[in-house]
Amino acid sequence: MADSWARATVRSRASSGNPDRRRRGAFVAVLALASLSAATLGSGVFASSMHAPLAAGDTAAALATDTPELASADLAVERALPTPDVPPALDASAAERIRAKPLAPKPPSQEEAKGIDAAIAALAHDDVPRNAMKAVHELAAAGDKALPALQAALESHDQQQRHLAAFVLRRVDAEPTQKLCGLSVEALGDPEIEGYWRTLIHRPALSAAHWLQQHARSKVVTPHLLVAARSSQPQRRFLAAALLAFAGVQQDLPNTCAVLLAQLPDNHQNGDALLAAHALYRLGPASLPQIRLAYRGADDQARSLLQLIEENLDDDVNGRALRQDQLRERFDRLMLRKVTTVCIDPARGHRFLYYTLPRL
């Protein structure tokens, strides 16, 4: 009897404990399934959700709701994700070098290479109308695949071919090389390049000045500009000095200032004085000794611009920002209306290459 009662009690307890065990078993199964899902999908779903670009609205929402706790959680997940392009055995510095290493451009196919070679040949001076213009567009569209052929064309004996190749390289913002810099500085002097104007409908100096301005502080470009700023060709000398000043290059500063100061007086050139004033201002206080010496023997136009540059630099040093009425008062006081009506402060407001490029 007692044994029957005991067995009944055990069965009763077992039957009453079955729901708890079932619930615990189901909970464990859910946890296991979630862990498996995270392990198998983490590198795809989590990585894509973290690294995909946000739309403008998503970005604002993310910034508005981000908290240190969320950021820490994201960082923990990111650290757990694999980095497919870096072997895990590499240290941090080696991994960064691998990530920063640029990918080699994909070589052109045989058909593409034939098209590039034909376009390079069409850049040369010949009697075929408009073939060079078409070739320029084709080579620019070819991108990195055309770079080796374009670099080789810089060595051509045909003047038109090498200068048009230089134009395409500048158009795609190729890295500065000695040959490309040399041809670009040569173009600053606006030489008579056979077929250049007929093909591109602009002066060679325009494209060259744009590209050189972007790379003026490059270790390759700066020495070329310093040499050009002492050229015997007036336009090349002046534009090179202006480009050095825009970049704030302090090397050979007396010569840079002297070249720019020479264009401040009234003359028959269009736009050279405004460009020179802006360039001298961009040199900063380092140009002040030369500016103050230039007052001696300056004509009215040069004196007005020298005073404007000096006052602007003094405002900068002392942290003054003039109101519009004060700018107008200074414009009238310095009689700048005789110099320009384009902007109220030509030393600050001149936009290089948006106005007429001086032709010296």
Describe the structure.
Helices cover 65% and strands 0% of the residues. The chain contains 19 helices and no strands. It has helices at 2-51, 56-65, 68-80, 92-100, 110-122, 131-142, 147-153, 159-171, 178-188, 196-200, 204-214, 221-228, 234-246, 253-261, 272-282, 288-293, 300-318, 324-333, 346-349. It is elongated, with a radius of gyration of 34 Å. The N and C termini lie far apart (125 Å). The model is unreliable at 1-17 and 30-91 (pLDDT under 50).
Features:
single chain, 360 residues, mainly alpha, 19 helices, 65% helix, elongated, disordered N terminus
Summarize the helices and strands and which ones pair or pack.
Elements: H1 2-51, H2 56-65, H3 68-80, H4 92-100, H5 110-122, H6 131-142, H7 147-153, H8 159-171, H9 178-188, H10 196-200, H11 204-214, H12 221-228, H13 234-246, H14 253-261, H15 272-282, H16 288-293, H17 300-318, H18 324-333, H19 346-349
Order of helices and strands: HHHHHHHHHHHHHHHHHHH
Provide the helix percentage: 55-70%
Number of helices: 19
Please tell me how large the radius of gyration is: 34 Å
Main sheet attributes: strand count, strand direction, barrel closure: none
The overall strand count is 0
Concise account of the structure shown:
The protein is an all-alpha fold and 360 residues long. It has helices at residues 2-51, 56-65, 68-80, 92-100, 110-122, 131-142, 147-153, 159-171, 178-188, 196-200, 204-214, 221-228, 234-246, 253-261, 272-282, 288-293, 300-318, 324-333, 346-349.
